[in-house]
Write a structure and sequence with these properties.
alpha+beta, Lipocalin, 2 domains, 10-stranded antiparallel sheet, elongated
């Protein structure tokens, strides 16, 4: 008997099989580099350099722009990121404060690392800025931005007259966010409590309730206290940057600024 002859695959069928195999190969999952947009970081290490930790150098990516503090001056400018590639403009706007030599040197090195980075890597809550050849330029830790369980010393208050003023000498307004949805602290003379809600950067506080003590010293303390409590009730957003907190109104105006209590 003659054996049955198996017909050779048609060219069209061969091409279809090849296309199917190629599609399957391209569908193999590939780990994506996490997006930097809407992330915030604090400088934690330089290769071969002892870090000056205070004040902290910070970095935030949002809406195609970077902003933060180099530990001495504020900066801001555009950036682009694609895959693991990163490009921060060297033409950033900065403030021009003078700082001690060791802080100034670190600030210069940080900005050089940021604008000199060609790639980045995010792993275990750390951001690594890398040169084009993969050399590590700087390491940053993810900024803890949760308010619950934090305590702050107030440094600036919106007085309701289109100005943010420093707190009076001899007063120490404070603000603490509990884990139970309650905020509390000292308004400078009286203690206060308020409810708060936080959802990402959105934060609101209820009208604060305070004790009824009167303080005569220092002069202006009672006026400052009322301005502070009024400002708290206008808060719409919060931003934590290093050891600093900015509470802003819905129109973007600063309502209250504060620094973190040591060890809290």
């Amino acid at each position: 008997m003659r054996s049955a002859r198996v017909p050779a695959p048609a060219p069209v069928l061969v091409l279809a099989l090849a296309a199917l195999l190629a599609a399957c190969a391209s569908a193999t999952p590939v780990a994506d580099t996490p997006s930097l947009d809407r992330t915030a970081w604090v400088l934690s290490a330089f290769p071969g350099r002892t870090l000056v930790a205070d004040p902290a150098a910070t970095l935030r990516f949002e809406g195609g722009r970077v902003s933060g503090s180099d530990g001495c001056n504020r900066f801001g400018g555009p950036y682009t990121a694609k895959g693991d590639e990163l490009k921060v403009s060297s033409q950033m706007a900065t403030t021009r404060m003078a700082c001690p030599p060791e802080i100034d040197a670190q600030a210069t090195a940080f900005v050089a690392a940021l604008t000199g980075a060609a790639k980045y890597r995010v792993a275990e809550e750390k951001l690594q800025l890398l040169a084009a050849d993969g050399t590590l330029l700087a390491t940053l830790d993810r900024q803890a931005e949760m308010l619950a369980g934090t305590s702050w010393r107030v440094t600036g208050i919106n007085n309701g007259k289109q100005a943010v003023v420093s707190v009076l000498a001899g007063t120490a307004p404070t603000l603490a966010f509990g884990t139970d949805g309650r905020a509390s602290g000292s308004a400078g003379c009286n203690s206060f409590t308020a409810g708060y809600t936080a959802d990402g950067s959105k934060v609101t506080l209820t009208e604060p309730a305070s004790t009824r003590k009167m303080c005569a010293e220092p002069a202006g303390v009672m006026e400052q206290e009322q301005e502070f409590l009024t400002a708290l009730a206008t808060v719409a957003t919060a931003r934590v940057e290093g050891d600093r907190l900015e509470l802003r109104r819905a129109d973007g105006a600063l309502a209250v600024s504060a620094t973190k209590d040591a060890g809290k």
